[in-house]
Amino acid sequence: MIVTNTETVPGHTIKEHLGLVQGSTVRAKHVGRDIMAGLKNIVGGELKGYTELLNEARQEALNRMLENAKKLKANAVVNVRFATSSVTQGASELFAYGTAVTID
Fold first, then answer.
1. Burial of 77 from C-beta contacts in 10 A (0-12 / 13-18 / 19+)
2. Contacts of 20 (CB under 8 A, 6+ apart)
3. What are the structural domain ranges in the chain?
4. CATH of domain 2-28+58-103
């Protein structure tokens, strides 16, 4: 399946718009990661535990969005975007959304 953040797929024609598809995951911080992040705040540097957490969350949200697109018989998702929001203290939602289409 082709996934793009543009409105079209270069070299292809959109045959049919199938609608909005989305996927999300809510992730909570891990106490161990919080401790390491606190130490990193003192000395500076990348918070690798959080980077890993966000990468996993993005991939899970993307996979769920693609599952939704497959159910609609799409062969591409265009105009893909990611958004985050705080659900509660220590937990955030990562949301992926786009437009499912069929292309030639």
1. buried
2. 97, 98, 99, 100
3. 2-28+58-103
4. 3.30.110.70
Query: For the purposes of burial, counting CB atoms within 10 Å of the CB of 78, is it exposed (0-12), middle (13-18) or buried (19 or more)?
Result: buried
Pairwise CA distance, residues 40 & 46, whole Å: 8
pLDDT tens for the chain, 104 residues: list them: 999 999 999 999 999 999 999 999 998 876 555 555 555 556 677 778 788 888 999 999 999 999 999 999 999 999 999 999 988 887 889 999 999 999 99
**Residue 95 and residue 26 in contact, taking contact as beta carbons nearer than 8 Å:** no
What's the farthest any 2 CA atoms get from each other in the chain? 54
